[in-house]
Design goal:
about 425 residues; alpha/beta; Rossmann fold; 2 domains; six-stranded parallel β-sheet; 15 helices; 14 strands
Length: about 425
């Protein structure tokens, strides 16, 4: 990675990237964007929540107010108010985030006079803050990571869910209205921006999720990670309710208990709202065939797991959110040159194409049988991985970086 010298001042082109639902250290898309902008000569600041689990990484509740230099990226934190997944928990989290982002962004503005404010969703509630900066001459760039209304439908049901859905549609619309430029992660999101957001297509840039091939390279397998098992199947990603982890455990249970397959080690890497539930399920099974090590922040160790695995899985079930979302894990799996199993979702199929074995929606037994199929048919695995090695160049971050820089240049040209 080319690292140029930076001065954190008001004279250079500068941008502030805002994240609410993740840490900069755990968001590969935002990291890719920040480093690409840095290498293109931008001064990049990132504002994100400080989660307790990262306080040991030279950032604590005592010094979070200061800026932290991460390889030329100036990272600022605010206290996280995450309390869980209930309605009132989200309400407290979002209100607190709104307050802290308004306050901290103003302090950063006074220091840097950033030229672009780069909003990453979810949620879509920060358009009033962006509007204030727009009045000050700052260009507003909306980075459309997730479909916030569809995310609401996944998390909330009944009358409350419907009311929150329409509220989220409203704030999504106003976020589009405030933005000078919109970045989407795929064609599905672009269509939603054009139709639901009534946003002009000439101001939309489709910048897909993908790993940096120069850095995210396969490693030699580490047999010790298999713990003596003949085969290893790995999941790596967020463990939210919409990510299919609990449903995937049903596939694993079917293989271990119903099919008596004790020769396969299942490793689930990551953290999120359902990890504790998943751990309870696995504990009740009294098996050593399943491991949940948590979030792997060491990128080298993560690549070791992925490189050692025989099969990599993307078990996101069908819903309107997942159908139209691009999961970076799929491209990362392809970069490792490993066979993939996934449910047949529109954007997952577009990313992986013939690199994956697809399973009908929400059929957990079929997902399990697909695992056995790849375990027992090495020639099929070879076919999938050979295609992945050709396809990955088309969806890697290197292929998307010029589009990001073009979006920034276009935003600066708007009067």
């Amino acid at each position: 990675m080319n690292m140029k010298p930076y001065s954190h001042n008001q004279n250079s082109r500068s941008t502030l990237i805002i994240i609410e639902n993740s840490s900069f250290l755990c968001d590969p898309r935002v990291q890719n964007e920040a480093f690409s902008l840095r290498d293109a000569g931008w001064n990049v600041s990132v504002l994100c929540p400080l989660f307790k689990e990262y306080e040991g990484d030279n950032v604590t509740s005592a010094n979070f107010w200061h800026q932290h230099n991460r390889e030329g990226i100036f990272v600022y934190y605010y206290p996280s108010s995450y309390r869980g997944d209930g309605f009132f928990s989200y309400l407290i989290e979002y209100l607190a985030a709104f307050y802290w982002i308004a306050l901290r962004s103003w302090h950063i503005w006074l220091k840097t006079h950033f030229k672009v404010i780069h909003l990453c969703n979810p949620p879509d509630i920060f358009f009033p803050i962006a509007f204030i900066y727009r009045l000050l001459g700052v260009r507003v760039l909306f980075d459309h990571h997730d479909l916030f209304p569809e995310l609401i439908l996944v998390r909330f049901h009944g009358l409350r869910g419907k009311m929150l859905y329409w509220f989220s549609r409203l704030v999504e619309f106003w976020t589009f209205r405030v933005a000078h430029m919109v970045i989407t992660t795929n064609r599905s999101f672009q269509q939603i921006a054009e139709t639901r957001g009534m946003y002009p297509s000439e101001r939309i840039f489709n910048v897909r999720n993908g790993p940096r091939l120069a850095e995210f390279v396969p490693l030699a397998p580490e047999p010790a990670l298999k713990c003596g098992f003949a085969k290893m199947v790995v999941y790596a990603g967020v463990m939210g309710y919409q990510d299919g982890v609990l449903e995937y455990l049903e596939s694993i249970r079917y293989l271990i208990q119903d099919q008596n397959r004790r020769d396969i080690l299942f490793v689930l890497l990551g953290d999120g709202a359902v990890r504790s539930i998943a751990c309870e399920h696995v504990k009740a099974w009294k098996t050593d065939c399943v491991q949940l090590p948590g979030m792997i922040r060491d990128k080298h160790l993560l690549r070791q797991y992925l490189s050692t695995a025989d099969i990599l899985v993307a078990p996101e079930p069908y819903n309107e959110l997942n159908e139209h979302s691009t999961f970076i894990k799929v491209a990362e799996y392809m970069a490792m040159g490993k066979p993939i199993i996934a449910y047949d979702l529109k954007e997952t199929r577009y990313t992986a194409q013939e690199s994956a074995l697809y399973v009908p929606h929400d059929d957990v037994n079929a997902f399990a049988e697909a695992i056995l199929k790849l375990v027992d048919q090495p020639e099929l695995c070879t076919k999938l991985t050979n295609f992945a090695k050709k396809r990955i160049a088309e969806v890697s971050w290197e292929s998307q970086q010029p589009l990001l820089l073009s979006a920034y240049e276009a935003a600066l040209r708007i009067k």
